[in-house]
Write a structure and sequence with these properties.
The protein is an alpha+beta fold and about 700 residues long. It is built from 17 helices and 22 strands. The chain has helices spanning about 10-30, 35-50, 75-85, 95-105, 120-125, 160-200, 215-220, 235-240, 245-260, 305-340, 360-365, 385-395, 440-500, 505-535, 545-560, 580-595, 655-665; strands at about 50-60, 65-75, 105-110, 130-140, 140-150, 200-205, 215, 265-270, 275-285, 295-300, 345-350, 355, 400-405, 415-425, 430-440, 545, 565, 575, 605-610, 615-620, 670, 680-685. It has a 5-stranded antiparallel beta sheet, with helices on both faces. The chain has a 5-stranded antiparallel beta sheet with strand order 7-6-10-9-8. It has a 5-stranded antiparallel beta sheet with strand order 12-11-15-14-13, with helices on both faces. A hairpin with a 5-residue loop joins strand 8 (about 265-270) and strand 9. Helix 15 packs across helix 16 (about 580-595).
């Protein structure tokens, strides 16, 4: 497109350099890109000796080429029509400037009369323009504008001329881009300020090095201050915080400075006028590239109007709810009044006339009771007229009167309880008498039945008490009489062994020992039967039980072998129960676990957890375990899985556990896998009855 570069003389090179320096100087010296374009355009036309120059810029919002009214016209009168024709042309999609925008490089038209792309051909020829040149104004890799130049002579440009002019375009592009960036920044700042004003949101920054605080304009306004006239330090800013909130705010800022933590809180600030504003503050520390804190930044949103609106809305909502509730209550009370299964009426205390009455009263007097009807005309009839007398006394004395179980059945039993209640005004004057009558016929009948049953139960209880005393006496005597000969047998065996002395061989001594063992078992069996028979027959008031202390006390009392480990946790759920039966259950379960823990290192653990209204306790061991077929059998009385010669015992211990637990409202069960130990469970009410 362009002729090859022709070697330049020193003067020509100086002129090119001077052009570039002048354009760069204009960019730095002028205050706007339009001024820089005007100065540069004059200088370019001077350099080329061309009579017409025009600058256009790309509109950022839609990429259109728009004239910025920057022209160089060597003869204003001669070229005015061409300038006016240019103002009517859209160049973004065509024409000489449009081609430079599209291809991002210079475009040369050597003869505008022969170039169909040239949109202003007629206007150019009319003023004698022959050659056209478009130079893109580049910022980085995109076109931000175009400079178009025109001459009346045929083109006399080579590649070096174009290169110099394109460098001019690059220099001008930096000016345009810089101005646009500054304009965008200012626009963003204006938008931010306006957004903060609309949202009642202010921002602030604190520089740790200088200690200065910078507020946005809106934050000044929120505090009731003129922008720029306010705090210069963090302590100054804290002076506006309400005294009741200051400690919390200071603590949050201290954590941000010391720990690098972000913060968020609500606070109140006090304006110079004394007005209090509610703010929601959020912020965070700012760190340098070395990771060290450099300050803090944050925002504050004025919530005052919103809180006030919320309070008004809340008050209105509560008022509406109250009205709705009042109306619902009125309707509900009206329905209850009309449908209540009781006699209800309200009588004016001065006139003795009904103000309101429900259907039950109408049914009792045999006709509808209208408002204004006199109580002298309609009133429930009763034996000896007791209801009328009570009503008259309540009316005259202003003291509530009641009549219980008055029979209004007219030949059949139909009992009512009546109340005549004076209703007072605020000043204490009686306003109305409320009549309330509730039928209690079923209650009277039930009471009579209960009284009869109570009398029968008292008789049965007395008989049972007598029978229990006789049974206790019999059990005690039987126990004493049964154990007496056993003690005699044990004593005789001891005397025989002592009398034989050295004459008794090992077999005799072993037989005598077995005899005494059998006697001891028999005594234990008798004691167990006596204890089993007494379960639930004697009681004491329940008391709060320290289950951990009871477990440890029982374990110490049992004094297990040294190789047996009994583990009691530091805490167990407590119950309110009778101590003796609860302790007996734990004693029997721990003794049973010790007895059957036939492993090198027996380990017994006690546990418990809350389960609704009960507490589930357990005693687990690492013994031989129990087969599923025997897990219910072991709870029966006299049931043992091994011979008494192998494991000593009466077979009553677990039966006693289950009976005690079930008597007190719980249950007892076992979980076990043979070879993996056993866990005996029992549940106990958290609060036991006496």
């Amino acid at each position: 497109m362009f002729a090859a570069a022709v070697p330049r003389t020193a003067t020509e090179s100086d002129q090119e350099l001077s052009l570039l320096v002048d354009v760069a100087g204009a960019v730095n010296a002028t205050r706007s890109s339009a001024e820089a374009l005007q100065v540069s355009l004059e200088r370019i036309c001077q350099f080329l000796e061309w009579p017409v120059g025009h600058a256009l810029l790309v509109a950022p919002e839609d990429d259109r080429l728009v004239s910025v009214d920057v022209w160089h016209l060597a003869d204003e009168q001669r070229y005015r029509s061409f300038r006016e024709a240019s103002a009517e042309v859209e160049f973004s999609r065509g024409g000489l400037p449009g081609a430079a925008l599209k291809f991002k490089r210079s475009q040369l038209i050597k003869d505008v009369s022969a170039e169909p792309r040239f949109l202003r051909r007629s206007a150019a020829l009319a003023v004698g323009l022959h050659t056209g040149l478009a130079i893109p104004i580049l910022a980085l890799d995109h076109v931000v504008g175009v400079i178009e130049l025109f001459d009346t002579r045929p083109a006399d440009l080579d590649a070096r001329d174009i290169t110099v002019l394109e460098h001019v375009g690059i220099i001008l592009g930096r000016s345009v881009e810089r101005e646009r960036a500054q304009s965008a920044l200012e626009e963003r700042e204006r938008a931010l300020s306006e957004a903060q004003r609309i949202a009642h949101l202010g921002s602030w920054q604190w520089d740790a090095g200088s200690g200065r605080v910078e507020w946005s304009d809106e934050l000044y306004r929120i505090h009731g201050l003129e922008p720029g006239i306010g705090p210069v330090s963090l302590d100054d800013a804290l002076g506006y915080v309400h005294v009741q909130d200051r400690a919390n705010v200071e603590a949050a800022l201290r954590r941000a400075k010391d720990e690098g933590a972000s913060f968020e809180f609500d606070e109140r600030v006090v304006r110079p006028s004394g007005e209090i504003r509610w703010l929601h503050a959020r912020g965070m520390p700012v760190f340098g590239s070395d990771g060290e804190p450099r300050g803090m930044m944050g925002i504050a949103i004025d919530l005052t109007e919103r809180r006030q609106a919320e309070e008004r809305a809340r008050a209105l909502m509560f008022e509406q709810l109250a009205r709705q509730r009042s109306e619902r209550e009125r309707l509900r009370l009206g329905a209850l009044f009309d449908q209540a299964p009781a006699v209800i009426a309200v009588v004016d205390a001065d006139t003795g006339r009904y103000q309101m009455a429900n259907a039950e009263l109408a049914g009792l007097v045999g006709q509808s009771v209208e408002r204004g009807t006199s109580t002298r005309e309609l009133f429930p009839r009763s034996p000896d007229d007791v209801l009328r007398k009570a009503f008259d006394v309540a009316t005259e004395t202003r003291v509530p009167q009641s009549v219980s179980e008055v029979n209004l059945g007219n030949g059949r039993e139909r009992y009512y309880n009546f109340l005549f209640q004076p209703v007072f005004r605020d000043e204490g004057e009686t306003m109305e008498i409320m009549i309330h009558g509730a039928e209690v016929s079923e209650l009277v009948a039930e009471r009579r039945q209960v009284e009869d049953k109570i009398a029968e139960l008292a008789r049965v209880a007395a008989e049972l008490e007598r029978s229990n005393r006789e049974l206790d006496q019999f059990a005690y005597i039987a126990s004493h009489d049964l154990k007496a000969p056993l003690r005699g047998i044990a004593n005789v065996s001891t005397w025989v062994e002592e009398d034989l002395g050295d004459a008794a061989d090992d077999e005799i001594r072993e037989n005598l020992r077995l005899l005494r063992d059998r006697v001891s078992r028999m005594e234990a069996l008798i004691d167990g039967l006596l204890q089993y028979s007494r379960v639930g027959r004697f009681s004491r008031a329940p008391e709060p039980l320290d289950v951990v202390a009871i477990c440890r006390d029982v374990a110490e009392l049992l004094d297990p072998p040294k190789n047996v480990s009994i583990v009691v946790p530091p805490e167990l759920p407590e119950v309110e129960a009778q101590l003796a039966p609860f302790r007996q259950v734990l004693h029997n379960l721990l003794a049973n676990a010790i007895k059957y823990a036939r492993v090198p290192s027996p380990r017994i653990e006690v546990g418990g957890r809350s389960n609704g209204s009960h507490v589930d306790y357990w005693v687990s061991d690492n013994g031989p375990g129990i087969a599923p077929a025997h897990q219910e059998k072991i709870w029966g009385i006299f049931q043992k899985l091994e011979s008494r010669d192998v494991v000593d015992g009466t077979g009553i211990g677990l039966a006693l556990v289950r009976k005690i637990v079930e008597t007190h409202g719980g249950r007892a069960w076992v979980e076990s896998t043979p070879g993996e130990g056993a866990t005996f469970h029992f549940s106990w009410p958290k609060v036991s009855g006496e």
